[in-house]
């Protein structure tokens, strides 16, 4: 089951897990409420995001909304366990401004995945989630993720404990192997199908089309590079510095967008929705202004001629 009637824009809740900077509980709730007010109804979280903080905050927010009016997903593969060595430190190695009193423990076993879901439900305060993703299997053991993790997810779906299952990854090889498992409903493609680079278009997206697997497209700003019209060496790419060659390509794309009076972030948000396999675009945000701006940019009219020009110049794939 991959058709939930997603809206075009969905919210990825890493920021309310204090990604990069700390938010108060009130600030996080305001961000989530703003997302709701703009029409967003799909919220994606994970234990990884702030060592459970994102799940707790998302759950606290969703407790104020009718259960049949939202879609929520979380992820499995990393269990959270006590970390005495982290006392007095922050989880800076993973870019989250939260106390490192817990640690992530990889576990793709059927028992580990079931426990991960149970613990996520407790943090969320929900009886169920709609979608469950295997998170970043390539970062630990892709073979184990495919051979043990995906069947474990499928068993939970077969039991009716979740409605749909998928894999979320930034790795094209992992995404392709996951699709070829023939067990998934959805695939969360993170940063591999964007306005500035489209490696997933070679095999992953066509395979999803053939098998009727819906694509939930995340990180369409490439972790910040495409989020602003002001490009420079300060721009962030994949959580780090942007390679100069990629920055030059992005500036070319931005130049074409400017010719058509289209903001670069608006083009980045809307580009992949032209692909029929893409069900929704998941974007984060740490302020209400960012959320409202993304919602507005998703509705801006973009002329077909702009896309044709970008294709003709070899800047995007058809």
From TrEMBL:
- What top-level branch of life does the organism fall under? Bacteria
Annotated NADP-dependent oxidoreductase domain residues: 9-311
GO cellular component, as recorded = cytosol
Signal peptide bounds: none
GO MF terms held by the record: oxidoreductase activity
InterPro entries recorded: AKR, FDH-like, NAD(P)_OxRdtase_dom_sf, NADP_OxRdtase_dom
Q: Which Gene3D superfamilies match?
A: NADP-dependent oxidoreductase domain (3.20.20.100)
What protein am I looking at?
Aldo/keto reductase
